[in-house]
Amino acid sequence: MNAGLLMESASAQARLIASQALLPANLLREQLEAIAKENPRLNAFVDVIATAAPSDSGRPSPLAGTTFAVKDNMDVRGLPSHSGLRALHAQACTEDAPVVARLKAAGLVCLGKLNMHAMALGATNHNADFGNCYNPHRPTHTPGGSSGGSGAAVAAGLCGVALGTDTMGSVRVPASYCGVVGFKPGFDELPVDGVMPLCRLLDHVGVLARSVEDVIHAFAILSEHGQPAALHANGGRVFAFAANAAEMGADPEVVAAYEGGLEQLRRAGFELRPVQVPGNLLTRVRRAGLLLSEAELHNTLAPVLAHRRAEVPEDLLAMVDYAAARSATDLARSLTIAVQAGQWLTRTIAPFDGLLLPTTPQTAFPMDGPVPSNQADFTALANMSGAPAISLPLPVAAGRLPVGLQMIGRRGADFELLDAALRAEDALREPGASSDQA
Fold first, then answer.
1. Contacts of 373 (CB under 8 A, 6+ apart)
2. How much is the pTM?
């Protein structure tokens, strides 16, 4: 197994293929062998297309010849979409979700379906039906969720890029915990047809990858906007940053990595302006988004709750039952909080190119340990406004778990944010500072 090749970015793999230094069939064989070896300990894949084969799409793209895999709540023709819950009794899908079809049409090969927290309502990727998914950096720890399989598969080099969904941070949380790049585009930038909804008001399809370049190429394909004419333009360097990360609830090791990353960005020419993020706002937003998600999911699962209630895991059942007992006033209050939080974020970002925050308040934690309630506190804000947001790995000392830097942009400025993220990724590269290797 060629570990060096597998850990290259999908863009680098595609360049090797384009130069004929690598055959797509050989890359595919290496990845399938890696899945067979690593998946028993990581449980990132719940369905593998063992017969996957390179195809000539006729539409050359910067990722042609490479591979992708998708979260188990997205339709892939020939595979069931369980959304992490066997009680759905899913049948094999007859059509690809548009985001899946677009990647295939651009010459990427789908390797299969990835583990997730049941019904996308959770940030740990505990899963009673398909088994827990684990973090490649420390296989006793959570990869984050709900797109945990997507984060783990990319971090372990099992696929080129992965698709996930993000309702309050479910792409960016696993990106942070697994030390990869995770991008949530702006609302409505990518279609959600063929994707099991959690909360339609907040749901986004996103991309996890090993480089910002990979994300840019994948987003260009998925959005059908086409590749941007130029990156590294002169703009995109003035960002606000949360000056009160510790008071917001970030752990000391996260604060240290975050502040170190900010200093590297300053040295690279970023102009950073401090802002205060109200800590009580974050908790209220997370709770509001959770209730809205629980309430909509209760409706989605109504047939299952009526006929197969005993098959629903206890934690999921508790959440949807809680929502069913809330009043219309409770839901209206949560909706108001969500709208007001989105307005606060829009106003705060308006004078800048974006806002910098830690992605998560903590690093990955043991699967069998207590679960922090605030995992999505820093990520949920971007879903409330529909703004694009991306998590980048921060430099950490050897042997330490990954920490993420979140960059939130202005709504409608997805490529501008990605351009800034490309600059930031370069600035954050520091020789000798790396996390555990997968």
1. none
2. 0.96
